[in-house]
Design a protein that fits this description.
Structural class: mainly alpha
Number of helices: 8
Order of helices and strands: HHHHHHHH
Length: about 150
């Protein structure tokens, strides 16, 4: 079994994911899906609170759309995340208390993650890597000048 074409898929996906607020967009989209699914739940589960008309389906659809657009167009993430927060808060009134709080929380957390994402930030260095670098710096012998404080 050849592994040639499959070796580049995972690194390519990681690179694509690193260039956008992936988790924020994904959580916002999942929140929209969850609210839409609770609208179609069986009658034993549904809690009818608020307007059950067009707004009950429109707001979760906009949540889903904003989540997908954050993933596909990260340059406009601020606009989509603000719209996502407002629409998510609107589902509290229109869609079974925001999908029984689960969709509401997913949408709010996802929108906040997308809003706070910074595109040009360097990746964080893990604790293990910092320890390795510190040990390597201690293991390197210092030149004679720096130990005595005198220069030649």
């Amino acid at each position: 079994m050849s592994r040639g074409p499959r070796e580049g898929v995972r690194p390519a996906f990681r690179q694509w994911r690193a260039g956008r607020p992936f988790w924020g967009g994904l959580l916002l989209a999942l929140g929209g899906v969850e609210v839409l699914l609770t609208l179609k739940a069986s009658l034993d589960v549904i809690l009818h609170v608020g307007m059950q008309g067009l707004a009950g389906y429109l707001l979760p659809a906009v949540m889903l759309l904003c989540g997908v657009l954050i993933l596909l167009n990260p340059a406009q993430r601020l606009f989509y995340s603000v719209v996502g927060v407002l629409v998510t808060l609107g589902t509290w009134l229109t869609s079974n208390l925001g999908g029984f709080f689960v969709g509401l929380l997913l949408g709010l957390v996802g929108s906040c993650l997308a809003f706070g994402w910074l595109p040009d930030q360097e990746p964080r260095v893990g604790r293990r890597q910092r320890r390795r670098e510190a040990r390597a710096a201690q293991a390197v012998p210092q030149p004679l000048e720096s130990r005595t404080g005198q220069t030649a």
